[in-house]
Design goal:
Helix content: 25-40%
Number of helices: 11
Radius of gyration: 21 Å
CATH superfamily of the largest domain: FAD/NAD(P)-binding domain
Number of strands: 21
Largest sheet: 8 strands, mixed
Structural class: alpha+beta
CATH topology of the largest domain: FAD/NAD(P)-binding domain
Distance between the termini: 41 Å
Number of domains: 2
CATH architecture of the largest domain: 3-Layer(bba) Sandwich
Strand content: 25-35%
Shape: globular
Bound molecules: flavin-adenine dinucleotide
Length: about 400
């Protein structure tokens, strides 16, 4: 059976950008359909960091209590351990936000929260298990998407198509929008580490490479930064990874010896963005417009802020008609600057993140400087916790 839906806005992708935009447009009275290829949000690890400015947006939406009722852990300061010597990299405690902490929450819980809030509006629809396969044109203008779902082909026509389908989006290339970027110097290995009841590790351990440890209650989610292109998934690579980790964190030697090759997932870091975020009838936001490096864990926050800016700029237009190219460009102009600044900083961070001096080496000068000047950690806290250009709802 084929399905045909007419709506004001169709959004490809129910990640942080797509669901937040769907929720905000529905709240503004716009008829909106979000199309998500998965049946639920329970998928691989995608990152957990919900920044103070995102929590302000949730508070403005009246969702903060519901957010805090879900499993989470708060971090007022990002701390780094250099062979046991600790320092603060980013301090959120003096931010002008309601909650002065970065909060860790499994992404599926966060997305469930947004989907539940959006589905309370009758003018919001989430089509799950439906993969967007292409766009529908009327001449040069994009007027909808076609997808494949459990009930067959689904055509959704709309005044605006938003591509929020993430960094591997096919939709944007169908509209001739190709990302440009710089080769990232690093990749990240992700895997789970067994956790005994009283186990604890510093959040960031550095000194001969870097390990980030997220405590997920009954296991640790580990991120280990490696030079780009060096992981082939072989037994030799695994042995090398174990050696490196043992040097950074001798206490992890035992648990990491039990990690198998298939348990290790490679994230190829990409640092890229579209030159133009829009085409006639189509706008790209979130990772579809700009893939970020994991440094600072800013991807979700930027995706949310793109959604907030998009809703603020386009909801009044969408209520009446299709947005013009000029109106779509306003979204890009608003959001491209924070993306550019953040990517610049992430590029600068690549080298220090990858530095692999021998264990025991004294703390490098930039870290000592940070340790001795706590005001810098507050500046970093502002940059990470608020973003370069925080967005408000109205
Ligand atoms: C391993 C890993 C760790 C990360 N760690 C962090 C972190 O700690 N903090 C942080 O802030 N960011 C982190 N990130 C980045 C962060 O997850 C992204 O920046 C953020 O999720 C971007 O949101 P988005 O909505 O733009 O895109 P996505 O989250 O990628 O969402 C896109 C959605 O579109 C759906 N989709 C894709 N194609 C189609 C299609 N054809 N049809 C229908 N649906 C489709 C996908 O299923 C997905 O739900 C991490 C990313 C990875 C991969």
């Amino acid at each position: 059976m084929d399905i045909r839906i007419d709506t004001d806005c169709v959004i490809a992708g129910g990640g942080p950008a797509g669901l937040m935009l769907g929720l905000l447009l529905a709240r503004a009275g716009i008829d909106v359909v979000v199309v998500e290829k998965h049946a639920d949000f329970l998928r691989d690890f995608r990152g957990d960091t919900i920044h103070p400015s995102t929590q302000d947006v949730l508070a403005e939406l009246g969702l903060l209590d519901a957010f805090l009722a879900r499993p989470h852990a708060d971090m007022p300061r990002v701390r780094l351990s250099w062979h046991g010597e600790e320092l603060t990299l980013a301090d959120f405690t003096r931010l002008p936000t309601r909650r002065k902490v970065m909060t860790f929450m499994p992404q599926w819980d966060f997305l469930d929260l947004l989907a539940d809030a959006a589905e309370a509006y009758t003018n919001f629809r989430l089509l799950r298990s439906t993969r967007v396969t292409g766009v529908i044109h009327d001449g040069d203008r994009i007027i909808g998407i076609s997808g494949e779902g459990p009930d067959g082909t689904t055509d959704v026509r709309a005044r605006l198509v938003v591509d929020a389908s993430g960094r591997d989006s096919d939709l944007r290339s169908a509209a001739g929008l190709i990302p440009v970027g710089v080769a990232a110097a690093m990749d990240v290995l992700w895997f789970r580490l067994a956790k005994a009841p009283d186990d604890a590790y510093p959040f960031i351990q550095a000194g001969a490479g870097m390990i980030i440890t997220i405590d997920r209650g009954d296991f640790f989610q580990i991120a280990h930064v490696i030079p780009a292109g060096t992981w082939t998934g072989s037994e030799e690579d695994l042995a090398l990874m174990r050696q490196r980790i043992a040097r950074i964190s001798p206490r992890m030697t035992g648990p990491v010896a039990r990690v198998a090759r298939d348990d290790v997932h490679l994230l190829r870091v990409r640092l890229e963005r579209l030159r133009r975020w829009y085409a006639d009838g189509l706008l790209c936001i979130g990772d579809a417009a700009h893939a970020m490096s994991p440094a600072g864990g800013v991807g979700i926050n930027l995706a949310i802020q793109d959604a907030v800016a998009t809703a603020r700029i386009l909801a009044p237009v969408l209520r009446e008609r299709a947005p013009s190219a000029r109106e779509l460009r306003r979204v890009q102009r608003r959001r491209v600057w924070p993306v550019r600044v953040t990517q610049r900083v992430q590029r600068l961070l690549q080298r220090p993140l990858l530095s692999t001096p021998d264990a025991g080496t004294a703390m490098p000068v930039p870290l000592r400087f940070l340790r001795d000047h706590p005001a810098l950690a507050r500046i970093a806290g502002r940059f990470v916790g608020l973003g370069a250009r925080p967005e408000r709802l109205d």
